[in-house]
Specification:
Length: about 180
């Protein structure tokens, strides 16, 4: 009976595009992302900190969430939260080049948070991070501005769809316990 209830709740959570799964830290590899401005980001450098990864698109109706992402970066970056924007054209709403994305996001949203180059996140040969998230949780971005929260040990703490704001209570409740000071 208890098992049936658990599976039923898991099915509901999955159907809503939510996942609240903590993968084992031993299964949490580090990932490298190309920076939109050159160089790269290595998630191993962020161990010990919570990391919110968001697939973005400059021309999406949810692009206003870039303001929310920058506000999180400004409010909690000094306390350890990393907010990583991952531009993607998987849903045909991104500008043509990383340079254009970088300039647009800086001009329109004042973005200073870490941002990767344009990457596939849901279709085709997705970035290894998104392949790992899919393998661990079954979560695949269904649209732009889907979120994945990684704990300080590299484990997946949760994932959310486009309608959940980056600073929403369901996300902040999971990262706040890991903030310093």
């Amino acid at each position: 009976m208890k098992r049936r209830l658990f599976l039923s709740l898991a099915t509901v959570i999955s159907a809503m595009g939510l996942t609240s799964v903590a993968s084992r830290a031993a299964d949490a590899p580090a990932f490298r992302f190309p920076s939109i401005d050159g160089g790269e980001y290595d998630t191993a450098d962020w161990r010990g900190k919570p990391v919110l990864v968001v697939n973005t698109a400059s021309l999406c109706g949810f692009a206003g969430q870039l303001t929310d992402m920058q506000a999180l970066h400004d409010a909690y970056g000094d306390r350890g939260l990393v907010v990583l924007a991952v531009p993607s054209d998987d849903f045909n709403q991104e500008l043509a080049s990383g340079k254009e994305v970088s300039e647009y996001c800086q001009m329109e949203y004042g973005i200073t948070l870490p941002m990767t180059d344009i990457l596939p996140v849901a279709k085709g040969e997705v970035h290894p991070f998104y392949a790992w998230v899919r393998q661990q949780t079954g979560f695949v971005p269904k649209w732009n501005f889907n979120k994945v929260l990684i704990g300080p040990d590299g484990a997946i703490l949760g994932s959310w769809g486009s309608f959940t704001k980056p600073g929403g209570p369901q996300i902040s409740a999971l990262f706040e316990p890991y903030l310093q000071g």
